[in-house]
Amino acid sequence: MAPIDPHSFTDSSHPLTTHVSLSLYLDFNSSIIHGSALLTLSSAFSGELSLDTRSISIDTVLDPLTLAPLPYRVSATPDPIRGTQVVVVLSGQSSVLIVYSTSPSASALQWLSPLQTFSKSHPYVYTQCQAIHARSIFPCQDTPAARIRYDVVMNIPNSLSAVMSARHVRRRLPVPEEAKHLEAGSLGSSLWSGEDRVVEEFAMEQPIPPYLFAFAVGELGFREVGPRTRVYTESAAVELLDAAALEFAGTEDMIKQGEMLFGDYEWERFDLLVLPPSFPYGGMENPRMVFLTPTVIKGDSSGAQVVAHELAHSWTGNLITNINNEHFWLNEGFTTYAERRIVEVVQGADIATLNMGIGWRGLTDEMERFKDNLECTKLWNNQEGVDPDDVYSQVPYEKGFQFVLRIERQIGRTAFDEFLKKYIATFKFKSIDTNTFLEFLKANIPGIEKEINLQLWTEGVGIPEDAYEPVSTIYTKIISLAKEFKEGRMPSEDEVAEWNGQEWELYLENLPKSCEPSQVMALDKRYRLAESKDYEVKVSFLQLAIASKCREYHGEVEKALKAVGRMKYLRPLFTALAQTGGTEEKQLAKQVFAEARETYHPIAQGVVESILSKYI
Ligand code: BES
Ligand code: ZN
């Protein structure tokens, strides 16, 4: 067996899946999906086809043409990272039908009870598949090396509606005959066409990596904010929907800007789904429909930055995709660059530079975090035996950004813009690795390897000396104010009069990791940072407060950890409590996690667990 991806059981000598047809029956009572997956391969195959699953139970595997059972076996013990390998024995088929059920603990799915939703009266379920969780929803070759088209027939309660990162085809009544494959498994025969059920059909006609498969089901409402953009929230969350529609009013301008910079927008729709507060990321670039945390809606249009980022993935990440997670920087580094180009046009160069500064700070912090694990400071890194969720960091984003910017600085913007457009046009709908990019770069910018040490940038550790610490008046001013705090001076009201969340974030992140408790409290008394509605500011401050042993803030920390499940906030707060704290802090971390655990997405549960087990 020759793997093509350290995170998948897919064998490089096997044909890859090109199309998946799913029938899914969502059972909200048991948090289980009863499904069938018809996988079509690029060519007929004889032998043992290797697939990825995670906590999935298989009922039967059939030849879709004859409906004859096909032999298969399931590995006895799951691999802690890759999950359970399933091997299907084919004799010349080019497709295979698998009837299966998911588990209530499926790592991609969060099932919310009515009480965990805004409505309090309807349940909700949503997916998060990146990096390697699609395999917990359906058996597949779960590697971005395999690009799939798909269609889905989804059977849900008729009081709910479904959205997907795919074209909505229609909503209709279920038909009993279409359940016959599922009934070969554990779905009772009358359930599919029960009176209270409805079917939603979707089709994805552009080939995507499996990690971009996504859906959400709940009582949803929407508003149109542009010719190709709707904003969705729970329909009961009227104020949130209003605020989101305002916050994202400029989306169409950003799409047009993206098209000017990077080429046509290839996905037709660009809808936005604002999820419940437990959504584990800021944003996820699911094609046609980006998923967003509600914490980006702050009423100051800074949420537009996250939208700019996820939009930028429409070109870098979704059109050109990293072939596996070892080349994740190709997705996130390019996207961070593209995001800042869009921000520069729609919000101005000052804001773009401020974001660059926050990124620079984040990058230098990561170098400290990974000082005993230098592999994680490389753009292209070895992830054999490594769980992508455990090594998620700013390195692929910010070092990747720095590398792309380094090339831009070398050849100038005009030449670079032309190069970028050509790069995207050449590799669109392809999954590539770092070397493919470097070969293309050298072929199109002759002599570049003499100007930039490409190998040092992509395979070396740390931050290369020719990286660029941003400069702007406001950036320099904030850094020097942060230095003065160490000498006991607080910024004056005048100095912060124009500050928004991002300025405060940059300021707080440049303060020493821990400070004199009285000074920290004085800062908060004056500027009310712990109560900020902006979670970036609130969490940066609380992190400082924990590390400075200001225990009066423990109540606020607990509230924050119970209100949102975004890992960008859970990680630093739980780390600060567990790593820098004394017994009281460690105790708080354990207690809050025990109480909040069930409200977190399974991916976030796993990440917090590994932080706590490292330090406690
Ligand atoms: N694709 C990522 C989110 C992700 C990364 C999910 C790895 C799973 C595994 C997304 O595009 C992203 O980077 N989101 C950022 C927001 C952004 C503005 C940098 C986030 O969630 O914080
Ligand atoms: Zn991203």
TrEMBL record:
Leader sequence residues: none
Molecular function as annotated in GO: hydrolase activity
Keyword annotations of the record: Cytoplasm, Hydrolase, Metal-binding, Metalloprotease, Protease, Zinc
Peptidase M1 leukotriene A4 hydrolase/aminopeptidase C-terminal domain mapped to chain residues: 473-612
Superkingdom assignment: Eukaryota
Record's subcellular location: Cytoplasm
Cofactor: Zn(2+)
Family: Belongs to the peptidase M1 family.
This protein's name: Leukotriene A-4 hydrolase homolog
Organism of origin: Camelina sativa
Lineage: Eukaryota, Viridiplantae, Streptophyta, Embryophyta, Tracheophyta
